Amino acid sequence: MSINVVSYENCNGIGLVLISNPPVNAISPEVVAGLRRALGAFEADAEAKALVIHCEGRTFVAGGDIASFGSPYFDTRPFNLLLVRLDASPRPVVATLHGTVLGGGLELAMACHHRLTLPETRFGMPEVKLGLLPGSQGTQRLPRLAGVPLTLDLILTGRFISAQDALAAGIVDEIAEGDSLALGIGAAERLVKANAPLRRSSTLKVAVDAATTQALAAAAAKAAEKPAYPALGAIVRAVEAAVNLPFADGEEVEAREFERLRLSSTSRALRHLFFAERAAARIPGLPREIRAREVRSVGIVGAGTMGGGIAMNFANVGVPTVLVETTDEALKRGLSVIRKNYEASAAKGKLSAEEVEKRMELLSGSLDYASLASSDLVIEAVFENLQIKREVCARLGQVCKEEAILATNTSTLDLDILAQATGRPADVVGMHFFSPANVMRLLEVVRGAKTAPDVLSTVMQIARTIGKVPVVSGVCYGFIGNRMLEPYMRETEFLLLEGAQPQQIDTAIESLGLAMGPCRMSDLSGVDIGAKVVNEQFEAGELPPDPSYRVVVRKLFDLGRYGQKTEAGYYRYEGRTPLPEPVVATVCTELAREHGISRRSNITDQEIIQRLMYPLINEGIQILDEGISYRPSDIDVVWTAGYGFPDHRGGPMFMADQIGLSEIEKTLEHYGRMRGNQFGYWTPSNLLKSLAASGEHIVAWTKG
Ligand code: T1G
Questions:
Q1: Three-state SS for 18?
Q2: How many CB atoms lie within 10 A of CB 351?
Q3: What is the structure's pLDDT at 396?
Q4: Mean pLDDT (whole number) for 127-134
Q5: Which residues neighbour 244 within 8 Å (Cβ) at sequence distance 6 or greater?
Q6: Is 432 tagged catalytic?
Q7: Catalytic-residue membership of 411
Q8: Distance (Å, rounded) from C-alpha 550 to C-alpha 230?
Q9: Which residues contact 389 (CB under 8 A, 6 or more apart)?
């Protein structure tokens, strides 16, 4: 009998259930229905002495179908009932495992009596990354198989473990090399022959000892520190139920907690980001199977903070990388900073000493552009100045081999001008890394007017190889992230002039969950860096004709207050601790007087949040309307992966729908009336207005 995604057959007296639901055999409603029919067939098949459950394709079930969790009809009970039937089967049930056995997949395996796995299989319970807990008896069976401490570790972190560790923990029973189906049948036949009592995970006792009690207490304490992630506390309560209650009662606790989490805003936000990060890899109009160029060696021009961090990404994955600088001293400094970074990781146990040396051996330095002649990908990361970058790009256009990809790390300059300077614009693309480049996951891939499709596709692939989350941006000032950051910083400075203090602004924004408020962020990234960008825009006549625009950062720069690097910026610093700085209040008071801005003491946290976040959202919607960004979820990936935006809020676009687009439009207009809108700071974008009028959500919007 064969039903689309699940089939059943009797093979020489052994029942076989085959799941085939590419790409990862996710447990969709169709799979559940198929499993129910297949199990019914097995139960009616008196000739079958045992049952083997296995999957086709790259992996055994990798979890529940995340896309189905948002459905009002979603229900774990049908699947969970199947697991109870498997567990209770009087005949042996074997799961034969490969690939990544995750979430509901591991729960299905744990309901069987014997788990056989191939050696390279990995196991995990990553539901917590979706704001959930295992909703199919995983919180009840795993403690019975592997004990509470490891259960809490795996379910609270979502980390994967190897087959060998799973065997040692009692999660699987056997590791074997070969064809997983044949191995599964062999195991079933052995169980039938042995006719031993079946090991039902639901009947095992949970080991209760000091380690169990301590692990539960520690997990509960840590969960209480993160109220924005309710899954953490729910996991502890469900595992605790496994310790204290009979299986069926513990399952009820788990089911209640799961349903509450499934409907939570945090889980909906995290599930949105799960698909958002994968959607970002899809480039409209570009066939997914386009042939990418080989990237076996990389060249980096500039061994400064960015160049060095970028080089580390490639050394980390074994790609030989040459750094080119203008002086021996700069080159040596750049390479020594890289070594120090690796040694710091080694000191934390993240790298072995041999690994440090292996990566350093992949890095070489040169003062001669000729050493870039054989590189497949060359990234310039020199000083953010148009003239300097144009000269560098012109030289790369001559020196680099014909099929080399030329990338620029510019964060503010016009990519098309730099592409033109190379003389081969089709080979040019932007790779905008975020500092520290070897840490931040986001990579803005800037598509020039002439960037060749295979160049774009190659960079999207190499981005994932080096562990980045690539998001494509069109060419505009600041691309996606920095362009949206501009109104956010503009309003930060106006609020300072109107009487708000840096710590009030930062605290209000950090209460949303952002890692750092704007003033602390500027002090960390460098007030001088921010001021130089504003001053260059001012020189180029690119600023609004508003004399009070961004005057605070420029004044602090003039005063030599560059932030943490000078132990003084918006704050003064004792080490890395930011302390209120009366000087800044004085500076802002004087600037306010100079620009005729009245100061007041009634600025609320709500006003701060609205005036920083709503113009940021409005700019993001404008970027979508201009086609600079392909889709709203790309913008959410940019902000959660590159700017410390809280993932439990899903990103600025997801959050905009939670606030309501009409509310945002009305609030922008309110501040336009209150502050004046002479320079258009408060004008809602046309797309925002039309979506607000039609009551549609921005997250579902696609450019027609
Ligand atoms: N549901 C739906 N689609 C999924 C999926 C899932 N669980 N996992 C992957 N996909 C899609 C993904 O969107 C992409 O689609 C394609 O598969 C390849 O994924 C009841 C409730 C398995 C390690 O959280 O960690 O079980 O973009 O690009 O890098 O208690 O996917 O090609 O159209 O990531 O090789 C628990 C999530 C769910 C696992 C493979 N399970 N997935 O990584 O490929 S909750 C998870 C992953 C649950 C139960 C609870 C990874 C992977 P497209 P990919 P990959």
A1: strand
A2: 18
A3: 98
A4: 98
A5: 250
A6: yes
A7: yes
A8: 39
A9: 380, 382, 383, 408, 410, 413, 418, 421
Ligand 1 binding pocket includes 646 (Cβ within 6 Å): no
The string of pLDDT tens digits covering residues 160-215 is 999 999 999 999 999 999 999 999 999 999 999 999 899 999 999 998 999 999 99
User: Quick one: average pLDDT of 77-106?
Assistant: 98
Domains recognised in the chain with CATH numbers:
3-263 (3.90.226.10), 298-473 (3.40.50.720), 481-694 (1.10.1040.50)
What pLDDT was estimated at residue 1? Answer: 44
pLDDT above 50: residue 510: yes
> How far away, in angstroms, is 126 Cα from ligand 1 center?
10
Helical segments of 351-474, H only: 353-361, 386-399, 415-422, 453-465
The reply to whether 482 belongs to the active site is yes
Token pair 């008196």 in the structure block, residue: 46
Q: How many residues are given for the chain? A: 704
Strand partners, 445: 431, 472
Q: Which atom of ligand 1 is nearest to the CA of 79?
A: 20
User: Can you give the pLDDT at residue 448?
Assistant: 97
User: Pick from 653, 618, 627, 658: which is nearest to 276 by CA?
Assistant: 653
The response to whether residue 102 sits with its C-beta less than 6 Å from ligand 1 reads yes
Contact 268, 70 (CB under 8 A): yes
- Confidence at residue 542, expressed as pLDDT on a 0 to 100 scale: 87
Put residue 650 in one of left, alpha, beta given phi > 0 → left and psi -120 to 50 → alpha. Answer: left
Taking the CA atoms of the chain, what radius of gyration do you get in angstroms?
Answer: 29
Residue in 94, 140, 88, 98 with CA at minimum distance from that of residue 113: 94
> By CB neighbour count within 10 A (0-12 exposed, 13-18 middle, 19+ buried), where does 46 fall?
exposed
The span from the CA of 698 to the CA of 634, in Å, is: 12
Query: d(Cα 296, Cα 196) in Å, to the nearest integer?
Result: 55
CB of 299 within 8 A of CB of 284?
Answer: no
Residue among 28, 66, 80 whose CB has most ligand 1 atoms within 8 A, to mutate:
66
- Give strand pairing partners of 116: 96, 174
Q: Is 131 in the pocket of ligand 1 (CB under 6 A)?
A: no
Cβ–ligand 1 distance for 278 under 6 Å, the answer yes
Residue 10's H or E segment, with its range, is strand 6-11
Residue closest by Cα to atom 55 of ligand 1: 24
